[in-house]
Amino acid sequence: MELEKNESELTIHDKNKGGRYRWVTITTLLLAIGAILHLVSPNIGGVTPNWTIAMYCIAINLTKPTLKQSFGIGLVAAAINIPTSKSAFPYGNLLSEPIGAIICTLLVCHTFNMTLGKLNIKPAVTGFISTVASGMTFITILKVVLSLPLSVYLYAMIPVVFTVAAANAAITQILYFPAKKLFDLKGDQ
Amino acid sequence: MPAITLQNFSYAYNHPKKVLDNITLSIETGSFSVILGPSGAGKTTLCLAVAGAVPHYFGGSSAGKVYVTGIHTKESSMQQLSLTVGTVLQDYETQLVTMTVEEEVAFSLENMGIAPQEITHRVEEVLDKVGLTGYEKQAVTDLSGGQKQRLVLASVLATNPKILVLDEPTSALDPEGTHSLYKLLSDLNKEHGITILVVEHDIATVLPYADQFILLENGQLIFNGTPEKVLSYMAAKQIFTEAIPPLWQLKLMIEELTARQFASWHTEEEAIAQLSKVLEEEADKNA
Amino acid sequence: MQKIAPITKLALTIFVTIWSIVLQSLPALTALIVCQLILLAIAKVGSSVYKGIASLFAFAAILAGMQYAINSDLLLAAITASKMIAMTLVFFILLATTRMQDLSAALVLQCHIPYEYAFMLTAALRFIPDFLAESKAIQEAQACRGYSPQGNVLQRFFSYMAVIKPLVLKAVTKSETMALSLELRGFGSRKTRSFKNNVTLALQDYAMLLSMILLTSYLVMQIY
């Protein structure tokens, strides 16, 4: 073969091209993990974290999807847990997860940096608020549809939502940074 | 026309650290080529360049050109190239994304918008080709490693690519699985004329089938040609010698000591046949 | 039930929910629950489904118990529990008699949901057994290295995170391969995509849909 004399300069390609479907695949795999943890996770000191919400919060923090995409992510998150969960109230999830995912996206994409000293606490904040949003939606629907008494709602359900949200905040914060480091690596070296 | 042509191709994932450096190479249609080299030599990146994932998926920066069956990859799209090049990645398990065997093959065809009746027909045909007939309804998770590998191959073959690129397809297979996979690839190569480009660490396993070796080191093309030439070159220049199969180390050593030239030793049987013939001649001479 | 198109069963799910909300009498709700159990029996679903149903009944009983404890109205508690059971049972029917792949094909073809989301649903289900095996392996490995799920809440929390972190990192690595592979397999142009699954409606589907609409309008008219 004929050799061209001079090697031409490297041209830089559009950086964002990589991974048109990365948001799809990372969400898929994290939601799969969320579903199995939902199945096998022991309760830790009486609290069972909501792994599904924690996982899509991580996915959203990593990929920063559009609002339409996060609405879909929420629906898929709810749908995955319908066939795999032990017992639940599917309609509650079908509404509460999209709300959680959208709130998370709004926080991730449209707020300023949140730091505590040198520590970036945005993952924890998004994890906490999204879980509260999703959880409150869920229990409110449960209350309205099943016409539960207000006292059950106030003294039994709301405290659970906030405890789970605290656990989720910790999970999101701990898992986000190692995941982010790996997520940003490009290529094989 | 060659199936694959690289003209002074360079590539960097993160500018300016080059992973491939000024590579000029041509791979003939219908050939069975093997990419060799130590880890970090750029073997995977070369595969990805042929599939168009470099630069279309990874961005980065590049220079020079890659042509696949005459198509300039940089000016085409990965979707367009997927019709010509079928790619099996190193982590093939993650390439399987559906729940059952037949759906996996159908998935590739559905992506192309093939009509349902045609899909059923092609799924049947291609599963037969890779020896997975009877497994149609089986869950993907329940397959063995070798079967998963075959399924990925089937899903890639379903779209009738002219070129197959496989990145270390046997790294997770047992010797038997490895042997039968290469036998299958060789059949596809000989009977269906598919050009095959594969990355393989264990040279001995591909010797019976390969007709071209491509030796990379530090992103540069060191040497390419027939297996025999490349192995001799590696031994002579002391490059990546740990990969030379023991049988060939023996062959090259005998040749050096006796100044006698053997034909290629693709298998142990060929080596035994040639050696015993030589020994007989020697015995006759001495008699 | 297995022969009925997925979209009809989806409609059934929605209608049963409406009925569960609209109906206020215990006998009517009980009848709805019994009808659904008969449907499940006809469909000959596996024992795992009944296990799920058993835990649903248990969950409903807890809810009813909580409610009774607070306002000691037995009838209201029973109605609440029945509503809960009635509207959740239908999901068991839907999922036990429909393949997820057909359901997602129906969602894309008939409900016009973008394909990416249907893909996420089935692909996640495909990877669940893999990750389950993976998490067991990690747990065993961590046990060998002396991690134990004992101690106070925080210690147990962190020892559990030691199992989950490698799992999440694995998912991140795999997501790159998977996204790359999807593009290498020509995933993407939704306009040209086809579906092998047959999810079209037959006569029986139309008959079911019609009777569900009639029943719903009758119930709604009864009330208002």
Automatic annotation (TrEMBL), chain A:
Any single Pfam family the record assigns to this protein: TrpP
Keywords: ATP-binding, Membrane, Nucleotide-binding, Transmembrane, Transmembrane helix
Family annotation (InterPro entries): TrpP (IPR031360)
GO molecular function, one term: ATP binding
Protein name according to UniProt: Energy-coupling factor transport system ATP-binding protein
Transmembrane intervals: 21-40, 99-117, 124-146, 152-177
Native species: Pelosinus propionicus DSM 13327
TrEMBL record, chain B:
Major localization listed first in the record, in broad terms: membrane
All copies of domain ABC transporter, residue ranges: 4-243
Segment forming the signal sequence: none
Keyword line: ATP-binding, Cell membrane, Membrane, Nucleotide-binding, Translocase, Transport
GO-annotated cellular components: ATP-binding cassette (ABC) transporter complex
Keyword Ribosomal protein among record annotations: no
Annotated localization: Cell membrane
UniProt entry tagged with the keyword Transcription: no
Pfam families: ABC_tran
Domain of life of the source: Bacteria
Record membrane topology: Peripheral membrane protein
Gene Ontology MF term list: ATP binding; ATP hydrolysis activity; ATPase-coupled transmembrane transporter activity
Record family assignment: Belongs to the ABC transporter superfamily.
This protein's name: Energy-coupling factor transport system ATP-binding protein
Source organism (scientific name): Pelosinus propionicus DSM 13327
Automatic annotation (TrEMBL), chain C:
The keyword Membrane is assigned to this record: yes
Segments traversing the membrane: 12-42, 49-70, 76-96, 199-221
Keywords for this protein: Membrane, Transmembrane, Transmembrane helix
Family matches, as Pfam families: CbiQ
GO cellular component, one term: plasma membrane
Localization per record: Membrane
InterPro entries (UniProt xref): ABC/ECF_trnsptr_transmembrane
Membrane association type: Multi-pass membrane protein
Name of the protein described by the UniProt record: Energy-coupling factor transport system permease protein
Native species: Pelosinus propionicus DSM 13327
Lineage: Bacteria, Bacillati, Bacillota, Negativicutes, Selenomonadales
